[in-house]
């Protein structure tokens, strides 16, 4: 950074904002840090009382904050994202679709631990909509060594961030429970699931009522799979009571059981499995009456065709307690954050 006379500043890069105050009209930056001074800017700068300016001193070993922000942006940007205009050395990414937002946590950490640069994102594995802000990035000083930015660029060959579009369209629901099957009580579970699926434009193309008979439930699941549905959802029969046979029925299909049980309340008795690439889930009774449960955390990933591992489910323990707030702000509250 060096000081020069304003009349000699054409082509120079400002190192600071220059504020304009018009009483009763405006107070704000007339020229932003990083602005390249033009001939027509000189009279304006002088009228603002700037006889001298601090400008960036050219150094081939250094990179200006605007250029560095673009480097960080390239590290993060994937398809389905647009960028904002660089402002005060900062650039932001915005989603261009509705989908599932993914963050490579390890690579994000590697960049941020380098110092003198930062990338801040919203929580990963959350639903985003077109126009939502995903991340912002900048360097901390006005200039940074080019060598350091080159080092950051080598951290990953694939973008740190991703927006996965929702792709599933067809679902099957297997409602279990002898009390429902025999008409002793009304099925109030299935309508809840249908409403949740509608949020993601998933169409229910198969529905069957079954008693607590594992053979009948297994047969119903196989029938649904033969219709080439994109997911199978089994409701009820998930506890450890002797009459609850849904986990056994799912296992008997030959599905790969990822996890029976999750560290989330409500939703501890949740089961996740895959038959090939098709998820088969077992939903505990809490999904029927609780506003938010483990199903709300898992469903967006299923709809985005994003496979879930047992370790990822285990990580839901931190933030996995729903506080039943009077006005639910899920997933912007603590429930479900951190995976």
UniProtKB/TrEMBL annotation:
Pfam families membership: MoCF_biosynth
InterPro entries noted in UniProt: MoaB/Mog_dom (IPR001453), MoeA-like (IPR038987)
Cofactor(s) the record lists: Mg(2+)
Known function: Catalyzes the insertion of molybdate into adenylated molybdopterin with the concomitant release of AMP.
Organism: Catenibacterium mitsuokai
Pathway(s) it belongs to: Cofactor biosynthesis; molybdopterin biosynthesis
UniProt-recorded name of the protein: Molybdopterin molybdenumtransferase
Domain MoaB/Mog: 172-304
Keyword Transcription regulation among UniProt keywords: no
Domain of life: Bacteria
């Amino acid at each position: 950074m060096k000081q020069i006379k304003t009349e000699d500043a054409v082509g120079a890069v400002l190192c600071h904002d220059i504020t304009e105050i018009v009483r009763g009209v405006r107070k704000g930056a007339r020229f932003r840090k990083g602005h390249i001074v033009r001939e027509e800017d000189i009279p304006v700068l002088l009228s603002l009382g700037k006889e001298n300016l601090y400008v960036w001193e050219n150094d081939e070993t250094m990179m200006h904050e605007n250029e560095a922000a673009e480097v960080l942006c390239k590290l993060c940007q994937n398809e389905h994202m647009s960028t904002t205009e660089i402002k005060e050395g900062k650039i932001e990414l915005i989603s261009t679709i509705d989908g599932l937002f993914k963050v490579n946590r390890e690579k994000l950490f590697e960049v941020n631990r380098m110092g003198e640069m930062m990338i801040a994102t919203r929580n990963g594995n959350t639903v985003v909509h077109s126009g939502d802000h995903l991340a912002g990035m900048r360097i901390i000083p006005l200039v940074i060594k080019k060598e350091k930015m080159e080092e950051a660029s080598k951290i990953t060959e694939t973008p740190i961030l991703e927006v996965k579009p929702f792709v599933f369209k067809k679902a099957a629901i297997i409602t279990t429970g002898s009390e429902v099957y025999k008409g002793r009580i009304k099925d109030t579970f299935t309508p809840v699931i249908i409403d949740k699926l509608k949020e993601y434009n998933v169409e229910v193309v198969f529905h069957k009522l079954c008693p607590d008979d594992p053979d009948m439930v297994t047969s119903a699941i196989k029938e649904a799979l033969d219709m080439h549905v994109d997911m199978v959802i089994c409701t009820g029969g998930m506890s450890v009571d002797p009459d609850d046979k849904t986990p056994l029925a799912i296992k008997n299909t030959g599905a790969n059981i990822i996890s029976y049980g999750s560290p989330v309340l409500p939703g501890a008795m949740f089961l996740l499995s895959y038959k090939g690439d098709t998820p088969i889930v077992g939903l505990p009774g809490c999904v029927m009456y609780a506003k938010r449960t483990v199903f709300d955390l898992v469903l967006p990933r299923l709809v985005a065709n994003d496979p879930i591992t047992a370790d990822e489910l285990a990580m839901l323990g931190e933030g996995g307690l729903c506080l039943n707030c009077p006005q639910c702000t899920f997933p912007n509250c603590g429930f479900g954050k951190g995976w």
